[in-house]
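REVIEWER CHECKLIST
Item 1: Sequence provided? yes
Item 2: Single chain? yes
Item 3: Sequence as submitted:
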Amino acid sequence: MKLLIINYSDNSGGAAKATHRIYKSLKKKINVYLYVIDKKHKDKKIITNFRFYYFLLKVIESIIKVIFHKKTNNFHSYNLMPTGCLKIINKINPDIVQLHWVGINTISIKEIGLIKQPIVWRLSDMWPMCASEHYNSIYKNIIDFDRVKFFNVDRYILHLKNKYWNKNIHFVAPSSWIKLKLKKSFLTKKNEVITIPNVIDTSIWKRQNIKSIKKKLNIKRKIVITFGATVVEDPRKGLLYLLDSLRFLNFDFELFLFGNIFDKNFLKKINNLPNIRYLGNITDEVFLKNIYSVSDVVVIPSLIDNSPNILFEANSCGVPVVAFNNSGIKDFILHKKTGWLANNKNSKDLAMGIRYCTNNKNQKLLKKNARDFCVKKFSEQVISSAYIKYYRKIISNKNNIY
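Item 4: Structure as written out by the authors:
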């Protein structure tokens, strides 16, 4: 069996990390290639091409964004230009093509429809069922129909997706929430959908020596709370709710923040807040494991999220997670067993969850439960086996047709 995975990057961003983890787990069992635009890993089976041409496509995407969605906070991908990706697919000639996060014109909408092999599409966000936006629930002016009178790019993209995509696409939803969204969208409701969660290498992601790390990081506070995101100030990630919840805590704590902060004014405000340590964007996984190891709780107050890597990383390191009871996250937290599911957009209940998970009476069991749950449900052996079983079913059905 030969598989080709297509994703924008092999390392930059949450979708890229999730993709690379799936690629690594499958690589141990089948012949798999990963095609990316942005390559970081030195792996011969991770391939890339068309660097200069793709740079021009990226510029065009940016221009379209300025014209049609300048005033929105949402992320948009248009994927209107041909990329030559079909030549790569035909050269490798895989049994199955697996799409992941293909935004920023990684492969065009039309090219996806022209792929001859069965397609498995593992969803990182909502782009396949939307127009140009990647999430459609919390941002204002997602489709600004009145901004450009002469032409509406979102209507055109919906038209193209509806025209070129067909039943040849088999969707993999990492969460039951996004599976439900797929079944409701007019673009995807006729396609087959199964649920396979994210994967985490539990042999690597595990608790480190806490005492030495605390000494090295000069941690003097009693409790360490951790929050991380690719873009910290992204409103979808809900940091403001976490910051608001801190006023309800009556114990000695330090809040660790990690990820990119692009807004200089926001960064200045963060640095001026008491009991908060901004760690920057962490790319070193050893350092990240150290942060989880000294954390008493990880908080993910996202307003909408599919399957964030930080949740699986934290649980695998034996750290309970507090999050709002919404979207995909609720699938991966057992309330009061591996963490806490707070009432949506309720800072006070978020604080209650932090108190519950950091209480000495609960901590030991919560940490054990979090680790055990992760090993049982999301380890490489479990997830790679689920994918391979699905591939075999698709190939078998294809062969039976002919």
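Item 5: Key structural point noted by reviewer: Residues 138-149 have pLDDT under 50 and may be disordered.
Item 6: Recommendation: ____
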